[in-house]
């Protein structure tokens, strides 16, 4: 098995795969009679003509080292994971290599931060490291075509602690 260390995430490192969603930096505007800072338009939700929905996922927490044997992608729409707890979570992504995932990269997503995967981005399953694993998920819930492709690795990867 090949091991992959977990990298610290930055917007630039994650940009090929999607958007980081957080409230860092100054607000774009102040609303609600000065009581709310709006950090505007942090992700491009791309549904490719389908309908967008918001679901709540309750994922089982995983432990490190984590064995990665499956990745998926959504060719018809983006997918956004917004944690509903104050814990970091693991995100695994990969570039496309002729219709299958290239060598994966692993990121630790800090508390109070979500991710939006671009359409057709290979990614691991929802991987909380702490319970409860509650996430709001914004994705394509209906429309023409199949919006899920899965790839099972012949030889799993092992995701280790931070490198």
What do these coordinates show?
The protein has 163 residues and is mostly beta strands. The protein has a single domain (2-162), classed as Ureidoglycolate hydrolase (Jelly Rolls). The chain contains one helix and 14 strands, in the order βαβββββββββββββ. The strands form three sheets. Strands 1, 6, 8, 9, 11, 12 and 14 form a seven-stranded mixed beta sheet that branches. A five-stranded antiparallel beta sheet has the order 2-10-7-13-5, with no helix packed on it. A hairpin with a 4-residue loop joins strand 3 and strand 4 (36-38). It is globular. The protein starts with a strand and ends with a strand.
Overall pLDDT confidence: 94
- For this structure, the quaternary state is single chain
The number of domains: 1
Ends apart, CA distance between termini = 17 Å
Specify the CATH architecture.
Sandwich
What is the CATH superfamily classification?
A: Ureidoglycolate hydrolase
Describe the main β-sheet briefly: 7 strands, mixed
Principal-axes geometry comes out as globular
| β-sheet strand percentage | over 45%
* Helix content range: under 10%
Number of strands: 14
Order of helices and strands: EHEEEEEEEEEEEEE
Please give the CATH class. Answer: Mainly Beta
Our count of helices gives 1
